[in-house]
Design goal:
heterodimer; A: 535 residues; mainly alpha; Cytochrome C Oxidase, Chain A; two-stranded antiparallel sheet; B: 2 domains; 3 helices
Chain lengths: 535, 88
């Protein structure tokens, strides 16, 4: 544990403290709260979209309004919810898991929080402008995002907001990398770090490597929109896509690895076993990270502007480390004494449902098949199976698992199960129909479709599913509210978990640990202690 | 390896550029080693001010030069405040 000198003043707990306090746990909670608020806002946009698409014809918005809905839904979920909440998990738990008293570079960490909040507000302020918010999809697709096609301040605000959110990610990731590099407790070697910390390390490496490309793309796009004509040439749109997707594909794994790491922790704890194939998992994470920086061109197969053979090869190779990680999750459970508490249910949901997203990913990694489903609802279903039906299940596994540590209270188990089953039902009802619709040729990003295609039935089912997902989130919010009033005290380690964050009080004190840390001889020091006590 | 498949300059320089950024962060992280005893900042007004300054700089593209100039001024103030905070 790092030696620290407690400042000669009391911790800041006022409103000003909420704005400028640097304790990594407080920053993480504020960041997570802001991200969850953006999740609710983005979810409302999704419900409006699904209401519009439930039947043929224009029901509740205009075509231009629908463009804004899907653009801001995707932007909010990716830039303002999944990425920040993944980094919030790391901000809270990485210092605890490595036995540090504080996060490194705490000012940079706080800067990241504020950049994210201000970026989100700027992005959403586009709705207040005359032309409305950004409407060129979450990718800011060029030339759709050019001034001539998307005039008005809303698109400029979108660019500025995205750039700030990108900078926020870099700041948050850099402080976590520095914490892992320089603040590990004695005995905490790299190969004794918990898998969640490893997953955050590779996540943060991908973030600092790829997010500058996003900031660059937004800066160039802003300049282009104000007369610099940077992308307004024959190869311009492809150049924009190359820069954007250099960020845009690694971010898929930025939105996956933290939850994979959390799920591995949950599976390990609720199976009563160490992570199966720990070293293989670490190697697979590193291989995955290296490969993830080499696959962006598969988003551009149909442009004819990229080396399809190269990007198809690297994209398909991703199946190898992904397979190793699945082997580790299943291998950890085999022979274990599995306890099906809510975190474990969500972890199992992640394992099964992300598999659907992963397998359909192999499908779209093949250029001939991708040509068939490109820009169709098949792609929408694929990435929602990875992000909502996958990563968000991993997120809820993490939330139910670590909630007692963060708040000192256990979430209600029965409400957690209701939340889980509604979420499972809702996600499948929403996205299985979209696979069918996409395969039948329904294009994405359209506000209307002809009744002659016969897509109304599947779309109605998908809309009902979205409503059930919303209901499941309401159940979660009710659970949080009731727990804050009457939740059962958790104690330091309610799950008999394995890693160092459970060796301190719930919630942890300002400098994380008040007692000496246990000896660190493996990635599961608390399990080591229990096993030594039995012997 | 991509260079064997394509002569698109943008595509080829992206990965080396990213590696360069990672190396810069890695150098900084290596210097973040725990010095033993240190003051831990309890609060940092400079970080919040810096974020506001960067937001104003970005808004300059929409609102005009005046916003960017105020942002630049605030950024300078934030940097000075950060140096003062580090000195305790």
């Amino acid at each position: 544990m790092s030696a620290t000198i407690t400042p000669p003043y009391a911790p800041v707990r006022s409103l000003v403290g909420l704005a400028v306090g640097t304790d990594h746990k407080g920053v993480a909670l504020r960041l997570g709260g802001a991200a969850f608020a953006f999740f609710l806002a983005g979810g409302i946009l999704a419900l409006l979209m699904r209401a519009e698409l439930a039947q043929p014809g224009m029901q509740i918005t205009s075509r231009g309004g629908y463009d804004q809905l899907f653009s801001m839904h995707g932007s909010t979920m990716i830039y303002l919810f999944v990425t920040p909440i993944a980094l919030a998990l790391g901000t809270y738990f990485v210092p605890l898991q490595v036995g540090a008293a504080e996060i490194a570079w705490p000012r940079l960490n706080l800067l990241g929080f504020w950049l994210l909040v201000l970026g989100g507000m700027i992005m959403w302020s586009g709705f207040l402008t005359r032309g409305g918010a950004g409407s060129a999809a979450w990718t800011g697709e060029y030339p759709q995002s050019a001034a001539i096609h998307s005039p008005g301040a809303g698109m400029d605000l979108w660019c500025a907001g995205v750039a700030l959110a990108g900078l926020a990610g870099i700041a948050l990731a850099a402080s976590q990398i520095a914490t892992i590099a320089g603040r590990r407790a004695p005995g905490m070697t790299l190969l004794r770090m918990p898998v969640f910390t490893w997953s955050m390390l590779v996540t943060c490496l991908m973030t600092v490597a790829s997010f500058p490309a996003l900031v660059l793309a937004m800066a160039l796009l802003l300049a282009d929109r104000h007369g610099a004509a940077i992308f307004d040439s024959a190869g311009g749109p492809a150049a924009y896509q190359n820069i954007f997707w250099f960020y845009g594909h690694p971010v898929v794994y930025v939105m996956f690895f933290p939850f994979l790491g959390a799920v591995l922790e949950v599976v390990s704890t609720f199976s009563g076993r160490r992570v199966f194939g720990y070293r293989a998992v670490v190697i697979s994470l590193l291989v995955f990270t290296a490969l993830s920086m080499s696959v962006w061109g598969h988003h551009m197969f149909t442009t004819g502007q990229v080396a399809n053979g190269y990007f198809s090869l690297t994209s398909t190779m991703l199946a190898i480390p992904a397979g190793l990680e699945y082997l580790a999750m299943i291998g950890t459970m085999v022979g274990g004494a599995i306890v099906l508490r809510t975190p474990m249910l969500f972890a199992l949901g992640f394992i099964v449902q992300f598999l659907v997203g992963g397998l359909s990913g192999i499908y779209v990694a093949s250029p001939p098949l991708d040509y068939h489903v490109h820009d169709s609802y098949f792609v929408v279903a694929h990435f929602h199976y990875t992000l909502l039906a996958g990563s968000v299940f991993g997120l809820f596994a993490a939330v139910y698992y670590w909630w007692p540590k963060v708040t000192g209270r256990l979430l209600f188990e029965r409400l957690g199960r209701v939340h889980f089953w509604l979420f499972v039902l809702g996600t499948h009802l929403t996205f299985i129909p979209q696979f069918v619709l996409g395969y039948e040729g329904m294009p994405r990003r359209v506000a209307d479709y002809s009744p002659a295609y016969g897509w109304g039935g599947w779309n109605t089912v998908s809309t009902v599913g979205a409503g059930i997902v919303a209901l499941s989130v309401v159940v979660f919010i009710v659970n949080v509210a009731l727990t804050s009033i009457a939740g059962r005290p958790a104690g330091a380690d309610p799950w008999e978990a394995h890693t160092l964050e459970w060796a301190t009080t719930s919630p942890p004190p300002r400098h994380n640990f008040t007692a000496a840390l246990p000896a660190i001889r493996s990635p599961a020091p608390l399990l080591d202690l229990r096993e030594e006590a039995i012997l | 390896m991509l260079v064997l498949w394509t002569d698109d300059v943008v595509a080829v320089v992206l990965l080396p550029g990213a590696i360069l950024v990672v190396l810069v962060v890695a150098l900084g992280a290596a210097r973040a080693r725990d010095p033993g005893e240190r003051w831990v900042p309890e609060a940092s007004a400079s970080a919040a001010l810096g974020a506001g300054a960067l937001a104003l700089l970005a808004l300059g593209a929409v609102a005009g030069l005046w916003a960017a100039l105020i942002g630049a001024g605030l950024l300078l103030l934030a940097l000075i405040a950060a140096v003062r905070e580090r000195r305790g």
